[in-house]
Design a protein that fits this description.
29% of the residues are buried. The strands form two sheets. This protein has a five-stranded mixed beta sheet with strand order 6-5-4-7-8, sandwiched between helices. A three-stranded antiparallel beta sheet has the order 2-1-3, with no helix packed on it. With 426 residues, the chain is an alpha/beta fold. The chain folds into three domains: 175 residues, no CATH class; 40 residues, no CATH class; 111 residues, Glutaredoxin, CATH 3.40.30.10.
Length: 426
């Protein structure tokens, strides 16, 4: 027979476990989306268009910054015990808003991926909804017990820590936005062999469809499958045929990369098979591209043409708009056409720059960090190595700081859980 004290102690552990899980999930979710603010803003654009409120698109980025940072700080509050009472209110409001939203997404599928974990973990809408249901149960438990959690430190200290972390996280997110995501979860990250990621194995499963035949009789339409349609009954009139996807086949990591000339010729294989270095300018929407960066890239393309380095410019803008922009900005760039979503996935910069060799992405640059021609004169390979070294140094410094912060924080959390939190819960 379980004693009352044992039951209470077990309940304390369950509540503490729920706090840790919710806090960790919110920190992870906020972190991976904060690394890629532009991706988060693009996802908000998708939501606004799907629900017919696309007039809100101009606020996508500010909204992404606010929600992602709020999500992260809620996780910090719950996991590390800073003003947990208010953290439980925050997580309840957050989950109360997004759980019904994910149910709508699951039922009607206006957006195929909710983006709750950015590109780090892609879930279907139904997976996202059931994930939220499980989390909501945990949230309700910790919210019910919110008054039993004692503050980690005095109010001024707790709030100061949360505000500092909030501001630092916004700065961290904006740094990634103004350069490139420090960790690239998308299929076009540096080192990617594009042709390999486009390859479909011969024995890969293919999409399976169900064919539905619609016939009409006496003004009433009825659906039939291929096994029972009234092909011998002349009283039925055929109306239409439709195919419904019942099982999705294998889809390679990169399945939508193609490059076309303005007159419709596909040059994808030519670009991906170049044995020499190739620079690829990427601009999903040329009208919104940074003008100063376009001028710099135009100069770079002229240098490349003089030295035998291939230079391709990709955009999804219509050809007449491209020509108008080239004329107004006096650009000599020759543009090719690629899908807008693909270009936004390739690089979070407008314009951005890639360096390819035989279809392998050797380097990527945000327009704030474009390479100098002087660097190219020395050696393309040397430039790539220098860029990789600098990125490694920046990433290592930030990761070291995060590891130190998390290590100290987890030590403090463990100490408080052992000596304070568990004993405080009745």
């Amino acid at each position: 027979m379980i004693h009352t004290s044992q039951f209470k102690f077990s309940l304390k552990l369950v509540i503490v476990f729920f706090r840790i899980v919710i806090g960790a999930v919110f920190i992870f979710s906020g972190f991976v989306k904060g690394i890629d603010l532009q991706g988060s803003a693009i996802k908000f654009d998708d939501y606004f268009v799907a629900f017919g409120i696309d007039f809100l698109i101009p606020v996508s980025l500010p909204l992404a910054i606010f929600l992602v940072s709020t999500e992260f700080i809620i996780g910090i509050s719950l996991l590390f015990g800073y003003r947990t009472y208010w953290g439980t209110w925050g997580v309840l409001i957050f989950m109360s808003a997004f759980t019904p939203l994910t149910l709508i997404l699951a039922l009607f599928n206006p957006v195929s991926d909710c983006g709750c974990f950015g590109d780090a973990i892609v879930l279907t809408n139904w997976q996202t909804f059931w994930k939220n249901v499980v989390l909501m149960i945990m949230v309700l438990v910790i919210f019910y017990n919110r008054k039993k959690f004692k503050p980690a430190y005095p109010a001024i200290t707790d709030w100061s820590i949360l505000v500092i972390i909030f501001v630092l996280f916004i700065g961290f997110s904006l740094y990634n936005y103004r350069h490139l995501p420090m960790i690239d979860f998308r299929p076009y990250n540096t080192g990617t062999n594009i042709p390999e990621k486009m390859y479909i194995p011969e024995d890969a499963p293919v999409d399976e469809y169900e064919t539905i035949l619609i016939y009409e009789k006496d003004g009433i339409k009825k659906e039939f499958d291929l096994e029972n349609y009234p092909w011998q009954d002349s009283t039925w009139s055929f109306v239409e045929q439709k195919s419904i996807l019942i099982k999705e086949g294998y889809k390679p990591p990169i399945h939508d990369f193609s490059i076309f000339t303005p007159d419709g010729n596909d040059i994808t294989d030519i670009v991906l098979s170049e044995k020499s270095y190739s620079f690829i300018l990427v601009s999903a929407d040329l009208a919104k591209a940074d003008k100063g960066a376009l001028q710099k890239l135009d100069t770079l393309s002229l240098y490349c043409n003089q030295t035998g380095i291939k230079f391709y410019s990709l955009s999804s803008s219509i050809y007449s708009e491209i020509e108008q922009i080239k004329t107004s900005q006096q650009l000599s760039l020759d543009f090719y056409i690629t899908d807008e979503t693909t270009l936004k996935t390739i690089i979070r910069s407008n314009p951005g720059l890639l360096l390819l060799k035989e279809g392998i992405i050797l380097a990527k640059w945000h327009y704030n960090d474009l390479p100098e021609i002087e660097d190219l004169r020395k050696s393309v390979l040397s430039m790539v190595i220098t860029k990789a070294r600098k990125k490694h140094e920046r990433t290592s410094a930030i990761i070291s700081f995060l590891v130190l912060f998390l290590g100290v924080s987890m030590f403090e959390v463990t100490r408080k859980f052992i000596f304070t939190h568990i004993s405080q819960l009745p």
